[in-house]
Amino acid sequence: MKSYNKICLIAAIIVSIVINGCNPKTIPLKGNYVTNPIEFTSAKSSDSLWLDVTHVFAEKGLDVKKIDKKKGLIVSQETSFISAYTFEDKDGKLKDPEAWVVLQKVFIKKKEWEPKTIYSEWSIQINQIENGVTLIKLNPFIVCIYHPNMFTSAETRGQSTGNLEKLINSTLLK
Q1: Is the CB of residue 75 less than 8 Å from the CB of residue 122?
Q2: Residues contacting 102, CB < 8 A, separation 6+
Q3: What CA–CA distance (Å, rounded) separates 106 from 125?
Q4: Which residues of the chain, if any, have pLDDT below 50?
Q5: CATH number of 24-172
Q6: What is the pTM of this model?
Q7: Helices 46-59 and 163-172: crossing angle, nearest 10°?
Q8: 70-111 pLDDT, tens per residue?
Q9: Which end of the chain is more exposed for a tag (fewer CB within 10 A), N or C?
Q10: Strand ranges (DSSP E) for 34-153?
């Protein structure tokens, strides 16, 4: 009889943890961030831009997963951004204005969860659109996973702050 009560007690504790951990509250972002691919043009040739983009990727630790020159596509490997993220303050301003990624805050019972995994994949398309003009499209895909305990997790989409895109744009326009 005692072992039956222990099993029921353990099951009740596990169910309670799962129920309390499954409904996190997320605070929506107030700022305007990159939600669509960013586009800009350059007077450089597409070959020159290919070299510049791969150089920026290498310099910033973004490994290239795929290069398809026929489609004009460069895709980065999934890269950890755990050291390059920030949250917003109560006014919607970035706490770290130099961060590349901004995340929603996630809470349960006023306890804020810390992100455990943040990864991103950046897709850059480079296409010659007319004589002397090349179009560059940057499209980030950012995922953040919170693991507050061993039973629960929550996955949210992060947003690009636009800082990496500005860096690439300034590099390509030199």
Answers
A1: yes
A2: 29, 31, 33, 85, 86, 87, 88, 94, 158, 159, 160, 161
A3: 33
A4: 1
A5: 3.30.310
A6: 0.72
A7: 130
A8: 887 888 888 787 778 899 998 999 999 999 889 988 887 778
A9: N
A10: 38-42, 64-68, 73-76, 79-80, 85-86, 101-102, 105-108, 111-112, 115-130, 133-146
| Sheet of 159-160, strand order | 85-86, 101-102, 159-160
Which residues, in sequence order, are CB contacts of 171 under 8 Å at separation 6+? 52, 55, 56
Q: What integer pLDDT is reported at residue 89 of this predicted model?
A: 92
Residues 6+ apart with CB under 8 A from 43: 132, 133, 134
The ranges assigned to domains in the chain are 24-172
Structure tokens at 60: 């910033």
16/151 Cα distance (integer angstroms): 11
Which helix or strand (DSSP H or E) is residue 159 part of? strand 159-160
Q: Calculate the CA 6 to chain-centre distance.
A: 43
